[in-house]
Amino acid sequence: MIISATLVVVTVVAPFIGGLLGIDGRERFPETLSSRGMPIGNFGGISWAHPLGIEPGIGHDLLARLIFGARISFFVALITTILSIAIGVVAGIIMGFFRGRVDSTIGRFIDFLLAFPSFFMIVALSLPMVQRLEKSGIAEGNTARMLYLVLILICFGWPYLARVIRSQVLSIRERDYVMAARALGASNTRIIFKEILPNLWSIIIVYFSLSLPGYLTAEAVFSFLGLGIQPPDASWGLLISDSIKYVMNEPTYFFITTTSLVFVVLTFNLLGDAVRDALDPKSEAS
Amino acid sequence: MFGYLVRRIATSLAILFAVSFAVYAIFALLPFDPAALTCGKNCNNPAIIEANRIRLGYDIPFWQQYIVFLGGLFAGRNYGEGAAAINCPAPSLGYSFNEHECVTTLIRQALPVTASLAIGAMILWLIVGITLGVVAARFRGRSADTASTIFVLIGTSLPTFLTGLLLLVFVVIKWRIIPFPSGNYTSLFENPLEWAQILLLPWITLAFASAALYTRFVRNAVIETLSEDFIRTARAKGLSEKVILRKHTLRAALAPIATMAGLDFAALLGGSILTEKVFNLPGLGRLSLSAVVEYDLPIIVGATLLSAAIVIAMNLIVDILYAFIDPRVRVAA
After folding, report:
1. End-of-domain residue from the set B67, B87, B103
2. How does DSSP classify residue A38?
3. DSSP conformational letter for A282
4. Which of A38, A237, B220, B228 is the most exposed place for a label (fewest CB within 10 A)?
């Protein structure tokens, strides 16, 4: 638990430290590349000056590139997670608390969304939607691509949590202390915020720590398919899909980028498990 | 029971209808002209574009197009007139101008690949997941349990496309155990050995992550069931641990697994885009991905609708099976 918490802090803080120290992922080191564009030296040109080696082809410092790219990757994952949780919680509480027609309307809409082949829709809509975002002047280039990814991931992400929250709220609202509050004349707002919401925090925290790595991976996957951020900006997905090109000649590059992603995802998964164990006395089994 | 069945089927049909309309509308209202795309990139002959527009039926408002599309689904559809007419028999999902082929034909070619992939992977992950889960639960806290926990952690942390790439790089390129995937596919009935050889790595890739999830799920389900009263009764009767595990625990613990497996299987049948791309398999996923790249609208709509239909149908089957197993569901719904 402590180990994973430390790791999470390190991965989250690293990008900001990188910014403070003045490391720029776009800085090039052409002298470290051979004439064929491959890094000089063993293991991808690892040296004191470049602790994780050099990116082949262009000659960026890989560590700087990873830190630089982490900003975008984490930004996308964090915004998506927070917003989809917010929508999911609000919808879930509304459904569970007011029941009846509201519940069945939103419920049918969720059924409808979940029936969509979401992964495929994200791929299919990417090109036209990004173009539309650019045309409407809201955002340009990579910002538009990021915006699209965040919006569409939220769109397909919130229904899962909404369902879980709804079933929880349905059971909580029948408990004695809610009855007591109502008998004392508490308003709906008060019951929702003071009696029901506090009981949902553990679910929300667990869901957060499990869906953040999910969206981190999603960003990598869509960059791998060529739908994510484009150079000269960097994201982890872009680095991974770039490193695949060099996997035969420069396996170190591939291993460092993929290991970074797997490591961070693993860390968040461990954290999620730990939080669940700590908050839920029933899950001692896991 | 009958009333529940009717209600459930009606809802599913309504959702399928809504999804099909939404998919059609989303893609029809995008700023792309499917008729202009039929004419190639550097084409500036408006006459050809207009002729193709009428021939493919894109000249009418989109809600009318949708009605024609629905009609084609049941009665088949003709494109153009006279000798040059193209006929797509029912169920027609449209005609792809890029591939010069009816979408239904294309899907029929791709579906066996995806189905082989999905079925093989599911068998693999069910075997691995259930075995590991039961073993871990049986020897809880011992080294077998720790090993399965590590497997679960790695499996859930490694994205599918990375598993596939790692397998491809090592098994195929570095160690040359299996020849490089050529993009061809041999049917099971033609040459079972070659079929299995082509699909082996994709199966492992797809099964890896799911096997990890199922291991965790089965382990928790078995442990929870082992603490139930009827297990204590069985123990008190003096039954052996083996009989208790096999006859009493597994039956109760595995019922929810069937639901999970059904839904996961449906998702896979819709095309596993990443695995098919990494291993260059000519399945539904690759078909739809290349359609997206070339903006081949009829294929996109057809493939999306098919996978939505599969998911909805599987949901329905799972729910109905559940209602048979558990009478409480019927009342609640």
Report:
1. B103
2. P
3. G
4. B228
Q: Does residue B242 share a domain with residue B108?
A: yes
Min Cα–Cα distance to chain A from B220, Å: 6
Pick from B162, B268, B315 the residue to mutate for testing the A interface (most A CBs within 10 Å).
B162
- The interface predicted TM-score of the complex, written ipTM, equals 0.71
A with B: how many residue pairs have Cβ under 8 Å apart? 99
**A168: nearest Cα among A193, A204, A194:** A204
Of A127, A244, A269, the CB nearest to B165: A244
Q: Which residues contact A270 (CB under 8 A, 6 or more apart)?
A: A3, A4, B153
**What is the total count of domains within chain B?**
2
Chain B touched by A108 (CB under 8 Å): yes
Of the pLDDT bands very low, low, confident and very high (cuts 50, 70, 90), residue A285 is very low
**Shared domain check, B139 and B82:** no
Q: How far apart are CA B20 and CA A116, in angstroms?
A: 9
- B135: tokens are 């073993």
Domains (range + CATH), chain A: 66-279 (1.10.3720.10)
Read off the pLDDT of residues B278-328 as tens digits, 9 standing for 90 and up: 888 888 888 888 887 777 778 888 888 888 888 888 888 887 777 776 655
Residues B85, B114, single domain; the answer is no
Of residues A141 and B114, the one with the higher pLDDT is B114
Q: Which of A115, A262, A283 sits opposite B15 (nearest CB)?
A: A115
* pLDDT of B333 strictly over 50: no
pLDDT of residue B5: 81
Range of the domain at B143: 104-293
Record the pTM: 0.77
- Secondary element (H or E) of residue B149: helix B143-157
